[in-house]
Amino acid sequence: MGLVCGQCGRSNRDAARYCDGCGAALPAGSPEVTHALQAARTPGETFVGRERELAALRAAVDQGRAGRGRILALAGEPGIGKTRTAQALADYAQPLGLRVLWGRCHEEPGAPPYWPWYQILRSYVGSHDTAALATVLSESAGHIAELVPELLQRLPGVQAVSPTADPAQARYRLFDAITGFWKRASAGEPLLVIVDNLHWADASSLRLLEFLAPEIAGSRLVMLLTYRDMELTRAHPLSATLAELARHGAFQRIKLGGLSLAETSRFIESATGESPSAELLARVHDQTEGNPLFVAEMARFLVEESVLGAERHTRQRGRTAAANRIPEGIREAIGTRLNRLSPACNALLADAAVIGRRFELRVLTELPADPGEEVRLAAIEEALAAAVIEPAAEPGAYAFSHALIRETLYDEVPATRRSRLHLCIGAIIEALHQEDPAPVLSALAHHYCAALPGGDAGKAVEYARRAAESANELFAYEAAASFYELALQALEGGSDARARVRVQIALGNTLTKAGENPQEAENLLQQAAKSARALGLSEELAHAACAFEEASWRPGLLGHAAARLLREAVPGLGEGDSALKTQVLSQLTRALIFSGEVDEAMAIHEQAVAMARRLGDTALLAAALRTVLSERWQPERFEKRVATTVEALRLSQQVGDREQVLDAWSWRLFDLIELGEMHLREIEFEAYVRQADEIRQPFYQYIGLSSRAMLALFQGQLDESERHAKAALAFGKRMPSLDAVGIYGVQMFSVRREQGRLAELVPLIEHFVRTTPEAATWRPGLALIYAELDRREQARAEFEALATEEFRGVTRDALWLMSLVYLADVCAYLGDGLRAGALYRLLAPYGDRNIVA
After folding, report:
1. Is the peptide bond before 453 cis (omega within 30 degrees of 0)?
2. What was the pLDDT predicted at 17?
3. Are 294 and 330 in contact (CB under 8 A)?
4. What's the CA gap between 245 and 231, in Å, rounded?
5. 413: closest CA among 351, 369, 471, 367?
6. Distance of CA 123 to CAs 101, 116, 117, 374, 492, Å?
């Protein structure tokens, strides 16, 4: 039986393009047209003009095999051939012994955090036996199981990862574990990891890529990243990632351009078996600019409309009117192609487009407009034959062959119908996964939120919030923030003001964890506090104030604003004792210390500790004790502070929280240096470092590295001190919330001084002090530099500016003592006996102690 015309029902021969009865275009499923369309999609000559790019990519793969890992970025506009070029590289790499692993980013926002990495890791896990996995994963197994839960079934002995209170450390541990895994995996076999459509990656996936990048150069790992460069604005997350990657020597960017006129001609000839005329070729090339996908779509059009055949006929008669039938744009060409499909097929594809680039048949089946099994399967076959969709890896799942096809269909669905479909799809996915919705929380949040304002706001908020909490558990803070923002949008204009405040606080906490824009977190939490105040929500005000203080102190900001909020929150918590009130008082202690209001901080601290003791909560008491340990510059409190540190360490050990043990222990080690107990400090320090390494707590590992630089300086081992300082800087820069650069600057200032090389620092510090108001704490160092370099007038000018009112102009903070020591040296250089007495009185209480900055 031949092809049946959808207009008049007449049966036609298989090769026919137009109905013999009514002249209507026949479905694009005839053998001849199908063959031509498939050829147009992946023609043999697709790689015409790609020889240079492929040569560069292959050379990078060869380098990777030899142990010089590479990061390759393949950029270009949609349809330019990025994925096809990546596949060609995979085809080259596999016979050479490289294992090829793919991860694809999805354009619809319903994909879970770390989606491309999940696909890559899952593929690796699925291709290795249990023994090999256990060896390669090693201590990374527990962390990677957080992203790939099925790993727990393969390796039942995997230990759960101990939690950590510091979000920056938690994410560092995950990223460090994954990085270590890739280094071990590539040591066993060379790897080609391809991340396709990186412009759609979630921000957490990009942070992981940035973390991995410095380790690739010395491995047998080659990473190929494809992305659309036309979509990258300065605000796009990928722009910052590419700038970070470009800092590494292993990085190489390759731009794919359009095919030339001659290459376009060969492309069309390969796809259709016929060569176009010069006029037709010029029109196609002008419309497509040589973009292979667009040329392929035009080739389909030429086949389906019989333009080439008509052109040959008119050419023989001296006419070239066929060129005028070319569509004006690619979307029009795609639309023309879709118009060739039956109405039933178009209707099904429109519904599928609302589901996403990838869709499951079981979801389509449950939609209200489902036409029934026979029509549905026929429509799927028709779309497959036309290469509009293709089978996905999972049974019963399909994907649109290109994002532009899906976008064209989605944009044509009326907004009200789209909203209803999103609501319906959300309900179907919810029902299919009612036993365990965790894997699809992102998709549920996406569809229920996209269904608003006419959908179910309650479910939109619920799933957006749950998706955010799930992302936070995976340390995907940027993804969590985006879900909380969806929840806030769903709550817009609603009556549940308390829920909105709580989501604002949760979002503020998440932005603090991300650690990239503390000002944004502070602004949001101030809004939450203002709303809680207006609504009379005492507990929410307290939580907002605590979250605000957390956002302030982690990046080392002054605590005045946080102290005001926390003070305001205290009366609303009543007269009695409570855990929340204790937390507020404890954090108020820290905020006051960071404001320089030490006397009030100590009084508040006594209240917090007394309340924690009355409550009998050991963990709460340990936390309250630790908030005061950063106050280091009052000699009259030294003995009490040392005792507080010892008690905080003992209670943290009693609770069994190893992270909090390390927190208290780090202060204990500084106390031992001040006391001059260097032998005891050396013994405890090695035990401290071992525990930090055992539980892979990066902040405390960093303290270990920077402390080695400090001790080497103390012992006069200057080269060793510089080596440790550089190692600490490299380690610390991978935690954005840590001021590793500032700490490195202080250490190298001391090293360069002992080396007689302070002159190298003069231009930098002069510029810093003059242009940065917050840099006043560097002025004593600048005065010392001038003294060391015998620049008396400049040293005198800086010294006089700081010496007024017996040196009250020196900021009384953690650097105060060090600043006084510097100024004492400057004072001796200047021979200023008058100021020497004032400095002596200030320094005398510390006469029997070392000074630690």
Report:
1. yes
2. 38
3. yes
4. 18
5. 351
6. 7, 11, 10, 35, 41
d(CA 501, CA 772): 36
Q: Contact, 501 vs 531, CB < 8 A? A: yes
DSSP 537: -
Q: Distance between CA 206 and CA 237 in Å, rounded?
A: 8
Describe the strand order of the beta sheet including 191-196 as a list of residue ranges. 99-104, 191-196, 221-228, 70-76, 251-255
Please give the residue that has the higher pLDDT: either 740 or 661: 661
Predicted confidence at residue 314, as pLDDT, reads 54
Residues 26/16, Cβ–Cβ less than 8 Å: yes
Element (H, E) at 13: none
pLDDT tens-digit readout, 340-389: 899 999 999 999 999 998 999 999 999 988 889 999 999 999 999 888 99
Residue with more model confidence, 292 or 186: 186
Element (H, E) at 73: strand 70-76
Single-letter amino acid, residue 66: A
Nearest CA among 72, 76, 73 for reference residue 59: 72
Q: Residue 798 is encoded by which pair of tokens?
A: 């800086």
Write down the mean pLDDT value for the chain: 84
Is the pLDDT assigned to residue 63 strictly greater than 90? yes
Q: What is the pLDDT of residue 762?
A: 78
- Per the document, the length of the chain is 853
- State how far the Cα of 720 lies from the Cα of 709, in Å rounded to an integer: 7
pLDDT tens profile 382-425: 999 888 999 987 888 999 988 778 888 998 999 999 999 999 99
3 state SS of 535:
helix
DSSP state of 112: P
Residue found by looking up tokens 């070029």 in the block: 85
Let me know: does 812 contact 596? Beta carbons within 8 Å.
Answer: yes
The label of the residue with tokens 């209200």 reads: 368
pLDDT of residue 369: 86
| pTM, two decimal places | 0.76
In the structure, what pLDDT confidence band is assigned to residue 329 with cuts at 50, 70 and 90?
Answer: low
Q: How far apart are CA 542 and CA 505, in angstroms?
A: 10
Q: Decide if 618 contacts 651 (C-beta within 8 A).
A: yes
pLDDT tens readout for residues 536-590? 999 999 999 999 998 888 777 788 999 999 999 999 999 999 999 999 999 999 9
Locus of tokens 């949008």? 489
108: left (phi over 0), alpha (psi -120 to 50) or beta: beta
Token digits for 783?
Answer: 């005065």
The SS3 of residue 736 is coil
> Which SS3 state, helix, strand or coil, does residue 75 take?
strand
Q: Under a CB-based contact definition with an 8 Å cutoff, are residues 615 and 577 in contact?
A: yes
Helix (H, G, I), strand (E, B) or coil at 761: helix
Q: Whole-angstrom Cα distance, residue 507 to residue 523? A: 11
Q: Is 49 left (phi over 0), alpha (psi -120 to 50) or beta?
A: left
* pLDDT above 80 (res 728): yes
Highest averaged pLDDT of the listed ranges 16-25, 36-45, 144-153, 173-182? 173-182
Task: Provide the residue type at 770 as one letter.
Answer: R
In the block, which residue shows the tokens 């539980």? 695
**pLDDT of 266 above 70:** yes
Contact present, 478 and 513 (Cβ < 8 Å) = no
Instruction: Name the token pair of 181.
Output: 């895994």
Q: Which burial class, exposed, middle or buried, applies to 808 when counting CB atoms under 10 A from its CB (0-12, 13-18, 19+)?
A: exposed
Query: CA-to-CA distance for 36 and 386, rounded, in angstroms?
Result: 10
**H-only helix segments in 103-202:** 115-126, 130-137, 141-147, 151-154, 167-188
Instruction: Compute CA distances 69 → 52, 92, 250, 428, whole Å.
Output: 20, 17, 7, 45
Pairing of strands 99-104, 191-196: parallel
